[in-house]
Amino acid sequence: GQQLNQSPQSMFIQEGEDVSMNCTSSSIFNTWLWYKQDPGEGPVLLIALYKAGELTSNGRLTAQFGITRKDSFLNISASIPSDVGIYFCAGPYTGTASKLTFGTGTRLQVTL
Amino acid sequence: NAGVMQNPRHLVRRRGQEARLRCSPMKGHSHVYWYRQLPEEGLKFMVYLQKENIIDESGMPKERFSAEFPKEGPSILRIQQVVRGDSAAYFCASSSPGQGAVLITDTQYFGPGTRLTVL
Questions:
Q1: Which of A10, A47, A81, B38 is the most buried (most CB within 10 A)?
Q2: What value, to the nearest 5°, has the Cα angle with vertex A50 and ends B43 and A84?
Q3: Could you say which residues from 29 to 48 on chain B have a Cβ atom under 8 Å away from some Cβ of chain A?
Q4: CA nearest neighbour of B80 among B96, B101, B93, B63
Q5: Per-residue pLDDT tens for A45-89?
Q6: d(C-alpha A56, C-alpha A60), whole Å
């Protein structure tokens, strides 16, 4: 089946630093989604990407849909304490409009 | 405008008991999805339902698990004769269909989850 691998698995950064994380797939995705999950809560959609090469921003977040359609990147600029959480990439299964495959997650912890 | 609601938020069951997890989709949403998340892992798809229909249950274990989304009321995920390995967070998501059909870009909104612990 389709697998999404995220790196790094976890990261500690200082407040104010920029963050980069990526997601790679063994197969092509036509849509890339980035979710954030706070402790004890469900995932919240941050950014959706629909076209290869697309670069989309949402406040301090910027995500890119890789040209090969097998990867995506999420950048967070000037991190703040509330950025703490787990970031997941996700995409729809090939040929299926509905069910999502989730990545392994990147756990972000910010030190003051 | 309430989001996706799930209850209970925490559920403790002993081995062999039944667990019932409820999900009320966002207002106007007719599609419901259930996902399971084990500790330190991503979410895994279980089942996709529309009102009174199971559309895709390819992620559901063949035994003990069932799901429904009746015409009236919440969607229910039922786990019979729970075992310790069923301990996980169960998330429900809902979406609204696009024009005429579910689109690939149909946004799924997630509930806060039910954390099931089997003793």
A1: A47
A2: 45
A3: 31, 33, 35, 41-45, 48
A4: B63
A5: 999 998 899 999 999 999 999 999 999 999 999 999 999 999 999
A6: 11
